[in-house]
Amino acid sequence: MSRLTIRHVRAVLPDRILDDAVVVAEDGVLAEISTGPGPADAVDGRGAFLLPGLVDTHSDGLEKELQPRPSVLFEVGFGLASFEGRVRASGITTVFHATGFYSDNRKGRSIDGARARERAIRERMSSGQAQIDHRMLFRLDARDPDGLTALGQTLELYAGADIPPLVSYEDHTPGQGQFRDLDAYIRLYLSGREDHEAARAEVQELIARRDEQIGHRAVALAWLLERRDAVRMLAHDLVTRAEVDELAACGLGVAEFPTTLEAALAAREHGLLIVAGAPNVLRGGSHSGNVSAAELVAHGLVDGLSSDYMPFTMVGAAFRLASEGLADLPAAVRLVTDGAARVAGFTDRGRLEVGLRADLALATVDAGWPTVRGTWTANDTRELVAA
Question: What range does the domain containing 303 cover?
């Protein structure tokens, strides 16, 4: 039997902080959570906070790791290994790579690129060398027929998975959703243009091209409805109550990044889980002018926070929410652990609780910000290897 003991920590339990705690993992499972001095050969946490390993349900970070500059593109296997280290150093032990099965030149996304990333992630997990639990969040563009075909083929590989595959229904056409404000879209994607009117005309042309495929939204929704028992459906950037009502009828389980308070309230009325962005919390608002994630937390309208595009924002957001009094620390940590695990459909992780996976993160607070001092996954605690 493999055994790992960590002593002298402030264990962040779902409802309280247990001071001077001793946490024991055996064969990758939490076996004991108690108080006292602990054995002398245990890892000494020196009074740091011990959290459950963080669960990130939406990460675009691998894309940025593969292409850190417009003219630089790394091989996907190398980029995945590099990004894995960055994620682990942020206390994240389970990450869902948000992978768009559609073409978008401005974001460097393509169906071939999505297939390559999915294949690399699957191979990394099957190799037995992965330092964290890599998962997929499949992004379905509501107006892309080719993407729908490719996604359907890829999902066949996930039949019999331990949790249903996560599929995010999205429509990033400017003028609605996240970019209802066309000027916000222009600032983000066409900021180098001196001629604002020319940029606006280019966006209008994009909208017109996208509108030629607007009828495919019904096809994509029908496709999801047929698979409502086989996939876990998330809806991205919801704006109105009517949108929430429509998608809830199609089997929506999660509202991901609602852009308005109205949409978040409607999602809660339907009993949906709600995901917001951790970067939004840290920046004090949305980069595209949408509702503040901290405001949604204050209204009790967030179940999970995701990193979106920067891994360390998750632990940073949890401690920021606690320091600003928007949530006590156990509640704030639940947003990046237990709540996020429930968003994904997990029941075996996200809490410091005997019998669950021994995914752990040790963190201190230094000069007002958290520092992750160590990360262990269930596999590590089977092998007694610490980060």
Answer: 54-349
Residues 248 and 339 reside in one and the same domain = yes
Number of domains in the chain: 2
Same domain, 44 and 93: no
Helix (H) or strand (E) segment spanning residue 342? helix 338-344
The CATH number assigned to the domain holding 247 equals 3.20.20.140
Residue type, 301: L
**At residue 227, what is the residue type?**
R
Tokens of 127: 């190799």
Other beta carbons within 10 Å of 44: 13
Task: Report d(CA 24, CA 32) in Å as an integer.
Answer: 5
The SS3 assignment for 44 reads strand
Query: Within this chain, do residues 148 and 169 fall inside the same structural domain, yes or no?
Result: yes
| Predicted TM-score (pTM) above 0.90 | yes
Sole residue written with tokens 């089977």 = 382
DSSP letter at 257? S
Block mean pLDDT (10 aa), the chain, length 387:
93 98 97 94 96 98 91 93 97 97 76 94 94 96 91 95 95 66 64 65 69 79 91 93 92 94 97 97 84 96 97 98 97 98 98 98 95 95 55
Q: Are 315 and 350 in contact (CB under 8 A)?
A: no
Domain shared by 70 and 40, yes or no: no
CA distance 146 to 112: 11
Question: Hey, what are 43's tokens?
Answer: 């890892």
Euclidean distance between CA atoms 214 and 143, whole angstroms = 6
**93 and 210 assigned to the same domain:** yes
Q: How far is CA 324 from CA 50, 96, 297, 320, 330, in A?
A: 21, 28, 12, 6, 14
Q: In whole angstroms, how large is the CA radius of gyration of the chain? A: 21
H/E element, 32:
strand 29-35
**Angle formed at CA 163 by CA 358 and CA 135, multiple of 5 degrees:** 70
CATH code of the domain in which 8 resides: 2.30.40.10
Tokens of 202: 């280019």
- What CA–CA distance (Å, rounded) separates 197 from 77? 42
Which candidate, 125, 270, 149, places its Cα nearest to that of 216?
Answer: 149
